[in-house]
Amino acid sequence: MSVMLEGVKDRPFIPTEYVVRLARTPWERAGYHALRREVFCAEQHVFSEDDQDAIDAVAIPIIAACCIAGMPDRIVGAVRIHEAEPGVWRGSRLAVHADHRKLGRIGAELIRMAVSTAHGLGATRFLAQVQEQNVLFFRRLHWKSLGVITLHGLLHHDMEANLSRYPAHGQDQTWLLRPQPRLRQVA
What we know:
This protein is an alpha+beta fold. The protein has helices at 26-43, 106-120, 135-140, and strands spanning 17-22, 60-68, 71-85, 88-96, 125-131, 143-151, 154-161, 173-177.
């Protein structure tokens, strides 16, 4: 029996499993930079050709990868962290591939991994400059705005994470499983 599935070819593949971890292989680092270029250069036009800067030389890159058969397959999320001054850490360049933003948990898990990792490395404060459209999302994740600034011609908020909500850890990865819809039983 043959079944015609309308609209399937236009829908992106959404995996059931993701891993969020410190980027540790050359392909993960390449995917991390490619995703940042896609989001900040091609999509948002914040930068013209590349978003890399001097911070990349000292930053710890963190990625979210979708998995196939339990193995990371494609980088779909990225963020970087660095110690700006003793005890004060910053996160920046948070990016999630457009096809994976509706899941709602990838960005939050990248933020959790970033802040908890920095906390485990001695952070007493964790700051980020957050684009205006993402401020409410960060507030829901226990961040507060310290004021409005303009960066690259866009409104941002200087924001600070409530470290008590992000326990320090030394994990280099976490798994994020996407909840699957329940199949209805037909009697």
